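Friendly challenge for the regulars: who can give me the structure tokens for this chain first? No prize, just bragging rights.
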Amino acid sequence: MGLEGGQSMAQRSTAEIRSSIESNRAELAVSLNNLHGEVARITDWRGQLERHQRELAIGAAVVGVLLLGRRRRKRRRA
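First reply, four minutes later:
Bragging rights claimed.
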């Protein structure tokens, strides 16, 4: 958080300081808005499901095959 143009706080006028604060406030608002959008996108589990349907289907098939194989082995032992 450096000072613009290398000026010390004492060398800046009240108007310059206020302008800098307003500029920082505007940049912060944009950053927060962008962050909110990213968090919403990343935590959207329904969207994740839609985007990864193929992977989910493959995973479900693998789990089904593994469970079926385990169940068959238990029946053979009994």
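The chain has two domains: 10-43, 52-78. The CA atoms of residues 31 and 37 lie 10 Å apart. Your move, everyone else.
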